[in-house]
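Practice problem 4.
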């Protein structure tokens, strides 16, 4: 059976359990053990979905660039050195939408002029951030070519660590030349300069003063630049930045990471599927702080939030490097990681009135939806989450509520333990601008229980024909590989009949597509 193909039609949604059994065998219960009700109001808009919510991040670390998107010696590369199969896979999952580059920590020591001109003349430099040598074979022109192939928007972070204002302005000027496309409109003013691990780290007041100057004169070169300022989980840092340079910013950033310990034998299921609820709390606190300070900024438009870095890290005792002890970046993704990624997307949809851009860490190899190897690539368990959300959801976020069991999980967060409450069913809903199409994301956060979900639509009814896409694997630790590329892939099913309820496999990501009357 082709797991990615439609399984055919059924008479009514009650047949879904039988269909899943046909796809996944006897791992599903005959009768759903859990029940929930979802109420959706398609007429109550809560935000607009910016395509940049499905953005990615490309940094010069490990095999993300070299051996990832760029490999001039590969038979799979084009004349520029870009991996054609990787580019095609990124486009298949909806494209990168917006692609942040060159860092990250790498940006705070990067000299962009080292990465232009003939490759054979580009200098090899030692990178103090990741403690490795940088060949500079992949630079601004290669990056913009990649964005052009992907059809995505560029997002360049300037060096505010040991870089100068002059270098930043010259970079803007270089990118605005007519033969370099696509145009670069989004520019990041540094990276994590609040942290001692960052080259050029400083106080919030020092950062705000410097960022205000960088932004002012970069806009002297290109007036309509969109500027991304360094935010933090620290309200004190954000207060100084917002008061010092908030009026000129278009986004304030936040970086959030989940942590998994299953490689050490821990049962981390509840903690990682609940982590998006913690993300949502952190982002809401930033939004509230911005809203409180915004009136004094005299802005024309509301300041947006960018979840500029996020993923869930696989940790293992004794692994990693001195720079990142315990971290295994190329640990394959599984269905639990897919639930985490989908949970973060649901969170961002609910907050889409303010959250308009995210950048997943990273687009390929390290934690990625795609893993590239010399002879091919693997689409990881999170690949179909990006594909479904980026290509199947609608542009208008609407109100959706779930009545279901709640649970509490203990999460290791920034060196301390936090108790977080979450729901076993996580739901978000989007509709088309004309109100005729509705997409509903349903995450079953039970580890072993099938869930029957009753659906209630306020004031609307679905027309005949429903598409249900489900990502599930009987073994929560199953991963895709070159030998078994489709162990964790989504299955799609066309359903006919009255929409009363839908049965969801355990630990699964599900997307319903409906046409409304």
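Answer key:
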């Amino acid at each position: 059976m082709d797991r990615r193909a439609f399984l055919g039609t059924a008479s009514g949604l009650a047949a879904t359990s039988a269909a899943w059994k046909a796809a996944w065998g006897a791992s599903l219960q005959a009768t759903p053990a859990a029940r929930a009700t979802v109420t959706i109001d398609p007429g109550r808009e809560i935000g607009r979905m910016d395509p940049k919510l499905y953005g990615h991040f490309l940094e010069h670390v490990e095999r993300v660039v070299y051996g990832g998107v760029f490999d001039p010696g590969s038979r799979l590369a084009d004349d520029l050195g870009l991996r054609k199969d990787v580019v095609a896979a990124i486009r298949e999952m909806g494209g990168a939408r917006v692609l942040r580059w060159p860092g990250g920590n790498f940006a705070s020591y990067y000299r962009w002029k080292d990465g232009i001109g003939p490759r054979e003349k580009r200098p090899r430099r030692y990178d103090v951030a990741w403690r490795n040598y940088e060949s500079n074979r992949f630079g601004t022109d290669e990056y913009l070519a990649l964005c052009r192939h992907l059809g995505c928007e560029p997002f360049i972070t300037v060096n505010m660590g040991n870089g100068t204002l002059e270098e930043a302005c010259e970079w803007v000027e270089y990118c605005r030349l007519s033969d370099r496309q696509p145009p670069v409109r989004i520019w990041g003013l540094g990276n994590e300069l609040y942290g001692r691990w960052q080259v050029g780290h400083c106080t919030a007041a020092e950062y705000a003063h410097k960022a205000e100057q960088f932004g002012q004169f970069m806009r002297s070169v290109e007036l309509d630049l969109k500027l991304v300022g360094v935010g933090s989980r620290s309200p004190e840092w954000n207060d100084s930045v917002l008061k010092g340079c908030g009026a000129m910013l278009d986004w304030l950033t936040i970086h959030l990471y989940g942590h998994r310990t299953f490689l050490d034998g821990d049962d981390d299921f509840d903690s990682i599927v609940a982590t998006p609820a913690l993300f949502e709390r952190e982002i809401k606190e930033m939004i509230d702080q911005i809203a409180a300070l915004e009136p004094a900024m005299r802005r024309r438009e509301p300041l947006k939030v960018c979840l500029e870095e996020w993923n869930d890290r696989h940790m293992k005792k004794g692994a990693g490097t001195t720079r990142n002890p315990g971290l295994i970046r190329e640990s394959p993704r599984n269905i639990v990681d897919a639930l985490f990624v989908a949970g973060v997307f649901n969170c961002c949809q609910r907050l889409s009135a303010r959250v308009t851009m995210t950048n997943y860490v990273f687009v390929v190899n390290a934690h990625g939806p795609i893993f590239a190897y010399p002879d091919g690539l693997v689409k990881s368990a999170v690949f179909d989450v990006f594909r479904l959300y980026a290509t199947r959801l609608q542009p208008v976020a609407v109100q959706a509520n779930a009545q279901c069991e709640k649970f509490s999980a203990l999460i290791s967060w920034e060196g301390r333990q936090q108790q977080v409450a979450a729901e076993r069913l996580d739901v978000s809903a989007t509709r088309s601008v004309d109100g005729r199409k509705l997409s509903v994301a349903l995450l079953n956060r039970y580890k072993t229980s099938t869930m029957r979900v009753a659906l209630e639509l306020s004031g609307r009814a679905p027309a005949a024909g429903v598409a249900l896409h489900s990502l599930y694997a009987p073994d929560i630790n199953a991963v895709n590989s070159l030998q078994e590329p489709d162990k964790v892939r989504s299955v799609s099913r066309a359903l006919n009949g009255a929409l009363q309820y839908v049965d969801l496999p355990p630990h699964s990501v599900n997307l319903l597509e409906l046409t409304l009357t």
